[in-house]
Please model this.
Amino acid sequence: MEPQATALINDPMAVFAFLAGIVALVFWLSELPRLRGLFEVVPPVIYVYFLPMLATTAGITPADSPLYDWTVPYLLLFALLLLMVSVDIRGIMRLGRMALFMVAAGTLGIVVGGPVSLLLFQSWLPADAWTGFAALSGSWIGGTANMVAIAESVGTSPDAMGPVIVVDTVVGYGWMGVLIALSGFQQRYDRRTGAATEAVEETNRRLETQEGERRAMTLRDAILMIGTGMACAVVAAWAGRNLPALGDPTIISGTTWAVLIVVTGGLLLSFTPVRRLEKAGASNLGYTALYLLLAGIGAQADLRAVLDAPVYLAAGAVWIAIHVAVLLLAARLVRAPLFFVATGSMANIGGAVSAPVVAGVYHRAMAPVGLLMAVAGYVLGIYGALACAWLLGLVGG
Model:
């Protein structure tokens, strides 16, 4: 792939440095006290994606570069491995059955809602819109990492990602605002539905504080993380290329196989002493790689694709409505209080950043429960999103 000759910056390393600088600037600004409120409304991930898009539109960076061919297969796998190694599976299993059931119900709502919403709006959307919906399902089950993983698995174009990220932010954070507003009605809801509110206290009793405190990253830690992560990424990418593609349209591609190998392997490693690397910030390093990758994806996109966002927004609203309907039905079956409805929803839609916030609004001491419910949704994410992608492919492929 040849770099775009008309761009101001063409050298792959210079492009990487420019994009890395944008990511660094965004996160530096997000911690400034005067701007913190702005970044709470519009999260850093939006700027990380759209600022490189604007740079390419302005002719500063190229839409095509050898850099992008490298970052997608390797930075993604590197990030996923470090994120999965950091998962506290034992902590998740200590959650009450009701909490896990509501997270799973929220995931089911996303898997079912995506294809139904696409079917309703398909005639107003581009032919490849199903690939954008598939990427969005990854975000709404497992967060940004799964969004990127599913996008690469089904071949979501950079142009199709623009509207998806708008929907992810506008609809996702809009729904978070609704859930926070509903917190004042939780007692009324629980009384009317006969909810088993003692389940909240039971879950709180079962929750144990994660072991140890974070420590400073040492040279040994950094070398182990980078060396192990990149080695596993290369091996997984090689294995994925040698496994057959499945589905028509293709859902399980070589990239998908590589992602599944890394995710499953990382989860298995989370039961070993390798998980101790999280105390030194393994997940932070994983997210660093992920945001660098997302900046590269944004740099390949066409700004005009965002003009499709209004239809996507309507489809996203319907999708959320189906997700909520499934959650409410599940809540009636197990007499779950509104706390578990709200936190189970946000554990999927918002992930580890938003779920503890919503949980803390409903019950201040329960923010750690929201965090572990989000991590449970994150574990389900790649597998649930692949199932949703398969259904979306049947509808729109």
The two ends are 27 Å apart (CA to CA). Residues 367-396 form the longest helix (30 residues).
